[in-house]
Amino acid sequence: MSKVANYLNEHIAGEVITNSAVLKAFSHDASVLSMTPEMVVYPRSTNDIRKIARFSWQLAEKGHVLAITPRGGGTDQTGAAIGSGVIVNTTAHLTSIFELDTKQKLIRLQPGVTFGALNSALLLHGLHIPSYPASGNYSTVGGAIANNASGILSGKYGDTKAWVSQLEVVLASGDVLQTGRISKRELNRKKGLQTFEGEIYRGIDSLVTDSQELIEGTIASDVRDNSGYGGIADVKRKDGSMDLTPLFVGSQGTLGVISEVIMKSEFCNSQVMVGAAAFHSYDGARDAVDTLFDLEPSILEVIDARLFASALERGKKYAFYDQALEQGDVGAVVIFAFDEFSERARRKKAKKVTKLFKDKVVALEIEEDHDEAQTLLALREVSALALLPDEKEASAPAIIDGAYIPFQRFEDFASAVDALAKKHGIEMPLYGHGLESIFYARPILHLRKVGDKQKIFKLLDEYTTLVSAHGGHIIGEAGEGRLKASFAAKQYDADVAELFSAIRTIFDPLGTLNPGVKQSADLKQLVSQLRTDFDTADFAGKAYFN
């Protein structure tokens, strides 16, 4: 064990591990990248994180950077949960739910709590946080906040950012910051502090003032772009009040380490009506999404029928799809749900759908019975089979997941993706969230082959170009991490990139917080970090669906 690890073990209540097997286990997340840390720390309290950050800060002041990488369940698909220095693992001890205020519907907890455990606790009180990601049963709340994660209900209820009330954050210096909206008067008091917190408030306030035109004209928009530090648009209001919370949400551990969270929740209805509609083509599916959008569904999914055909080849059958095939060719399937508390309201919408879709669908089924509705909802899980291809040494890495595409451009985009896939000799059927216009594709690759390793970055580059050409953003969901940072930066103007760099410098002047994440990297460096053993086996026992 190194002197640094020994020192930290002496000064924190948690544990510092340098065992080679443990380091290997933490050398990768759910991405195709790998990086071995010097040590893994299991903090037991905010004070432990403070001591780690303070020690790292002091080393950096002497010219030695010991990087800090916060980590939850390790489900990040962009390499944001790996690092060469200290991995701060929140899942061992920072897993407490402290209190629930049922009147205000606020819950206070630690970042290592999984979203599944959180919603299970809330459901006892008829509440939930609807932004939960698909990996919520084993990914953490801290990770969801770091990535501004979203899920199948986010189109109606918003992403994680919409449900975060306040944060406790350990800054790079080891100081602790409590976020929340403060008045103009309180902001002036904060700016007068002769501490690192004071420096941050002064720096961000000055930056927002100097960049107001850029923020309002370029960053503050309704278009889904989850890259960089777009939360800067929500930090300061016209009344002079400020809240730093939006900056930390989606920052992927590059501005501070989240140590405690207060989240908002909402009433949950377990009686959901679910429907599925099969169409001859994407064109029909696109029109259906436009129609359903006006009815305010809670779920609206679009799935390329090739995924069902692929599942059928592997023996997996879905009754709805089989019945649809008996009626004609199927090009795409749309899954939707209504979750109004009023049974009458749900049935009224179902009748509208039946009337509007008459003579326009290959097949249509709407179910109110809970078990039947869940069977229809399970259709969306057909994408999971793409994660685990049968072919030897084949894998389906999530290298181009989560792009935002304006839905009116979707049909043209899908055709362009097919052409790109044909060029590279692969298939990339699309599926995604219609309400948010967030889409996924999983190319099957053989990462032990040099050609396929090179193909990763060619695909990322060309896919980013396609997304831009169709008015979209490559990082519509989650963050860019290490893998996609260089490609996401291609979509920035130079002044936006400069603004994001300035934000990071204010919070992390010595470069100790997750260096390499949300920063453009040399292609050779990324190639050297590629995993040849990537096969998603770490998640084979879990329901890992988008």
Structure explained in plain terms:
The chain is an alpha+beta fold and 546 residues long. The chain has three domains: 1-180 and 249-268, Uridine Diphospho-n-acetylenolpyruvylglucosamine Reductase, domain 3 (2-Layer Sandwich), CATH 3.30.465; 273-386, Alpha-Beta Plaits (2-Layer Sandwich), CATH 3.30.70; 388-491 and 525-539, no CATH class. It has helices spanning 3-11, 20-25, 46-61, 115-123, 141-147, 154-157, 184-191, 196-210, 212-219, 245-248, 282-293, 305-313, 319-327, 343-356, 370-377, 410-423, 450-469, 485-489, 494-507, 523-528; strands at residues 15-17, 39-42, 68-71, 86-89, 97-101, 106-109, 127-128, 164-170, 176-178, 257-264, 266-267, 273-279, 299-304, 332-338, 363-367, 403-404, 430-433, 438-441. The strands form four sheets. It has a seven-stranded antiparallel β-sheet with strand order 15-12-14-13-17-18-16, sandwiched between helices. A hairpin with a 4-residue loop joins strand 17 (430-433) and strand 18 (438-441). Helix 8 packs antiparallel against helix 19 (494-507) and helix 16 (410-423) packs antiparallel against helix 17 (450-469).
